[in-house]
Design a protein that fits this description.
The complex is a heterodimer of chains A (710) and B (213). With 710 residues, chain A is an alpha/beta fold. The longest helix of chain A has 15 residues, at 307-321. By secondary structure, chain B is of the alpha+beta class. Chain B has helices at 14-20, 70-84, 100-108, 143-151, 186-190, and strands at 2-3, 6-7, 44-47, 50-53, 64-66, 124-125, 131-134, 158-160, 167-169, 196-198. In chain B, the strands form three sheets. In chain B, strands 2-1-5-3-4 form a five-stranded mixed beta sheet, sandwiched between helices. Chain B has a three-stranded antiparallel beta sheet with strand order 6-7-10. Classes of the chains: A alpha/beta (710), B alpha+beta (213). Chains A and B meet through strand 3, helix 1, helix 8 and helix 24 of A and helix 5 of B. Bound molecules: iron/sulfur cluster (3 copies) and FE2/S2 (inorganic) cluster.
Chain lengths: 710, 213
């Protein structure tokens, strides 16, 4: 029996439509969806060939409870009663991580549980580790943290500026749409990246700034725009504030000085600025229409100790040129996980309620009315702070859903030490990963292929997820597990258990839509009839919104915020650690690799962690392509396979943060943080690299360490 | 516009109209995601007295279409017979989503399936862990090349050589694994035969109880 299920890719934030073909209850093939407006019939290797992980034999099939030191199988009743009993004693010293891989419905129920039953706002998700600086800056300057444009706008733009991102590896289908713009419409392309990414091949201007000098670069572009008088005066007058103070700050240096700080040519910096502010119209642009520019950025901007400043400098550029609020322009922080947008929308953040609504005044009262009990109104702890506060005893118990912090946190050895100090840790996931090994209770969750729900992609499109196969083992959807637990605990804390008596995901979504103005017009019934809908969608007759900020910003006027280049990074190379380590992702693996390590073909394609190094440095260190090398920082070491190419600058090495063969870059990275967003500085730390020396025979003869994960 | 005597909205191409009525005619080189290529000539129909390729003839302005007219059916069968001479028998392997279209086209039009393998076109590229290319089954329709170039804008593959030497390849003497192919699989999805097909699932990936595999 062959059947087809229309659903949404579980990997990245592009949110491609996929059609899963099942044969005999088994996933056989994942096909593209020609009518999905986000992916238009495309997929990348992960969506097409990578979804078989859901049928991997390592899937957790039953709850596990730690007894006498060992994790042992237990029934759902046993496990949930135990968790309920223990968590009741940790109210006030509790924190929770939500999953940006799970559905909006999962996220909504989890934040409701944490706020209503656990009485705390200590809930957060991985946005802290990727785009919190962007969100922080955008909320402050514009009043919304979302991508303003749609993917269609990349094709309508006359210029694309890609900063610190590698869509070819991380958002492949967006990359295809950008290539289409360049190839078919002659759209200009500016790439800013210390690494030579694939798209740089098509770039009109390719800038490779020194690591950590981004603020200077964008201020330099702003200065060049002001020098050429290419700013959008009308937009600045009508739509923004703070221009003069900001202008003064930018005028303190010349384009040449800025360029020198970044190690790029002043002429190219000017050319990039010119293209962004006023690109020549792309082929086919309607006469009289102003050519637009899209600005997209990634982790190369945010994962720095001054990530928020970087994002601010970019937003200032968009305000200066008025490249916002029309078709073919906009700003996009390219989101990593499939549902990182939705997880934040659903309220899994410590400082606001669903829909980014503040705790203040009426809003909290509306939620309290709907939920029939009080909720805390002080902001909770951010993910990175929750972990750091374990040491002080402020956090004694944690509930981690669909995340593996012991692979994704910076300075892994330090983080593992902290997690071990917890009194009680519950992990809910598909696989028994590094963090789950330390848990007291492990709860098996359904994968995307087994559940009903919605994901929200990078262009704010809410799309359906539908079950293609029955749940593996006795696994259950995340929202159902959390709701079941909440029902067990609710009477003990004065909450009506009927608050968690959902019978379906649709019911959860309906409650979320009712309480969240930007989603109010969306329902599962509409998604069924019309396909994905882009929020804001304030009422049932509303078609959804292709681009934001057409007439106003959510905060009223857009705000210029002066920023100045500070020390490039907290840790810089020195004699002992002469290289700058840059981390990122690769096409063939997903993030830390908990999932993609379980797809044989993806592992074949890239079996070892690559350590990418410039030829000049390689020669100096006596390293050849394919050598096993050791990378060391002040915090740890890892090994990998050398890839020698001038795609990276001299003096820097690039290591993706996937963990393969028990080696991972985050053993090296630095746990220093950006204020105010508290993102760790993944992108810059000092390391040394050397060729691995063969070990004496008696050492290598010992039995190999058993890998926990395979 | 009328197709086989039934009224239909003349939107898009003739093929769109025909398929909208649920009439099964082969259309091996027309993929949902791609503009018409017009290479395989298996979609021939008679439109206002002329035999045309339905996939790239606009429906607007056409009045009467016959999919099964004597003339159209005869030429279509001839084209399919020539197509069948290009490749070998159905391989014992799971294909991509469109693989069955070729065999269905033969059955529907009463054309015999090829029984023996083609000796001259026998290369197999299984260098990619995600899919393989089996020249034996290729009908040179060009869907894969078009998917790579016009849909994904990657341009990793092309058709090299002419006549009997024509061959789909990621570059002369280059395997898929060694090419700029990103394994996006759009070519595999577009292939109407078993030529580009996904790699079989491996034992460790099957659904099972922990400890198995
Ligand atoms: S681009 Fe992202 S969403 Fe699309 S198939 Fe690839 S991983 Fe999935
Ligand atoms: S490989 Fe498939 S799609 Fe490509 S030309 Fe051959 S038959 Fe057509
Ligand atoms: S899988 Fe490779 S050859 Fe096929 S379309 Fe994608 S990039 Fe091109
Ligand atoms: S489908 Fe019309 S010519 Fe191939």
């Amino acid at each position: 029996m062959e059947s087809k299920t229309w659903t949404t890719c579980p990997f990245c934030g592009v949110g491609c439509g996929i059609v899963i073909h099942t044969r005999g209850g088994r996933m056989a093939w994942a096909d593209d969806d020609p009518v999905n407006p986000s992916s238009r019939g495309m997929l990348c290797v992960k969506g097409r060939f990578g979804t078989r992980f859901v049928q991997h034999p390592d899937r957790l099939t039953t709850p596990l409870v730690r007894r006498g030191g060992e994790l042992e199988p237990a029934s759902w009743d046993e496990a949930l009663d135990y968790v309920a009993e223990r968590l009741l004693t940790y109210r006030g010293r509790f924190g929770s991580f939500a999953s940006a891989k799970a559905t909006n419905e999962d996220a909504f129920v989890q934040q409701k549980f944490v706020r209503l039953v656990m009485g705390t706002n200590n809930i957060d998700h991985c946005t802290r580790l990727c785009h919190s600086p962007s969100v922080e800056a955008m909320l402050d300057q514009l009043g919304s943290g979302a991508t303003s444009n749609s993917y269609a706008d990349y094709e309508d733009a006359s210029c694309l500026v890609l900063v610190g991102c590698d869509p070819g590896s991380n958002h492949p289908v967006i990359a295809s749409r950008m290539r289409r713009a360049v190839d078919d419409y002659g759209t200009r392309l500016v790439v800013v990246n210390p690494k030579r990414i694939d798209l740089a091949e098509r770039a009109d201007v390719f800038l490779r700034p020194l690591p950590g000098t981004d603020v200077a670069l964008f201020n330099g572009m702003a200065r060049a725009i002001l020098d050429d008088e290419l700013e959008d005066r009308v937009f600045i007058d009508r739509r923004t504030e703070g221009f003069n103070a900001w202008r003064q700050a930018v005028m303190t240096s010349t384009v040449e000085e800025y360029a020198a700080t970044c190690g790029v040519s002043a002429a190219e910096l000017r050319e990039a600025a010119r293209l962004y502010a006023s690109p020549p119209p792309r082929r086919g642009l309607a006469a009289g229409e102003r050519p637009g520019s899209c600005l997209a950025w990634g982790m190369g901007i945010t994962q720095h100790a001054h990530g928020t400043d970087n994002a601010r400098a970019l937003i200032n550029l968009a305000l200066l040129t008025g490249q916002l609020g029309r078709p073919g322009c906009g700003i996009s922080p390219l989101r990593g996980q499939n549902n990182v947008q939705g997880c934040g929308d659903a309220g899994c953040i410590p400082d606001s309620l669903p829909g980014y609504q503040p705790f203040a005044g009426d809003v909290a009262a509306i939620f309290e009315e709907a939920w029939g009990a009080g909720i805390p109104r002080e902001p909770g702890l951010k993910a990175t702070d929750m972990v750091e506060r374990i040491a002080a005893g402020d956090i004694r118990a944690m509930y981690v859903v669909g995340e593996n912090p012991l692979l994704s946190e910076p300075n892994l050895a330090h983080a593992e030490g902290l997690f071990r100090q917890l009194d009680f840790l519950v992990v809910q996931d598909l696989f028994l990963h590094e963090t789950a090994h330390l848990a007291h209770v492990v709860l098996p969750a359904c994968s995307f292929a087994e559940k009903d729900g919605t994901f929200t992609n990078s262009e704010r499109r809410v799309q359906r997820v539908r079950p293609a196969i029955p749940p593996v083992g006795s696994s259950r959807p995340d929202w159902a597990i959390v709701a079941d637990l909440a029902r067990r605990m609710a009477p003990r804390v004065g909450v009506d258990p009927r608050q968690f008596a959902y019978s379906s995901g649709a019911e959860v979504f309906a409650e979320m839509a009712r309480l969240t103005p930007q989603l109010r017009g969306i329902s599962w019934a509409r998604l069924e009839d019309e396909g994905g809908i882009q929020w804001p969608c304030p009422e049932p007759g509303h078609p959804g919104t292709r681009y934001l900020y057409a007439d106003r910003f959510p905060r009223g006027l857009g705000k210029f915020v002066p920023v100045q280049q500070s020390v490039p990074a907290a840790e810089l190379p020195d004699a002992d650690y002469p290289f700058v380590l840059n981390t990122g992702r690769v096409l063939y693996h997903w993030h830390g690799g908990t999932i993609t390590r379980r797809v044989a073909a993806l592992v074949d394609q890239m079996p070892e962690v690559p350590v990418v190094i410039n030829p000049a440095d390689a020669t100096r260190q006596g390293i050849a392509e394919g050598d096993i090398v050791i990378v060391r920082s002040r915090r740890g070491r890892m090994s990998g396979k050398a890839v020698v190419t001038d795609a990276v600058r001299e003096g820097s090495v690039f290591v993706p943060f996937v963990k393969l063969q028990e080696s991972a870059a985050n053993f090296l990275t630095n746990n220093v943080y950006d204020e105010p967003s508290r993102i760790p500085e993944y992108k810059v730390c000092a390391v040394c690299v050397e060729k691995k020396r063969p070990r004496p025979a008696e050492l290598t003869a010992a039995p190999p360490t058993v890998s926990r994960d395979r | 516009m009328r197709v086989d005597g039934r009224d239909v909205e003349p939107a898009g191409t003739i093929l769109d109209a025909v398929l909208a009525l649920g009439i099964p005619i082969p259309h091996l080189c027309k993929d949902d995601n791609l503009p018409p290529i017009g290479a395989c000539r298996t979609c021939l129909v008679e439109a206002d007295g002329r035999v045309v390729a339905a996939c790239h003839t606009p429906a607007a302005g056409v009045d009467e279409v016959y999919t099964g007219s004597e003339r159209a059916a005869r030429i279509r069968r001839a084209v399919l017979r020539l197509t069948a001479r290009m490749h070998g028998p159905e391989p014992d392997a799971e294909g991509g989503p469109r693989s069955s279209e070729l065999w269905a086209a033969y059955d529907l039009n009463g054309v015999e399936r090829p029984a023996s393998p083609r000796r001259t076109r026998g290369s197999l590229d299984s260098s990619s862990p995600f899919f393989s290319f089996d020249e034996q089954a290729c009908i040179l329709c060009g869907c894969c090349v078009s998917a790579c170039q016009q849909l994904q804008h990657i341009g990793a593959i092309g058709i090299a050589g002419t006549g009997t030497r024509a061959k789909v390849t990621p570059g002369t003497g280059v395997s898929f694994a060694a090419s700029i192919c990103t394994a996006c699989g759009s070519c595999v999805a577009a292939c109407p035969t078993h030529a580009l097909r996904p790699a079989p699932e491996r034992p460790g990936e099957r659904l099972g109880i922990p400890g198995e595999g």
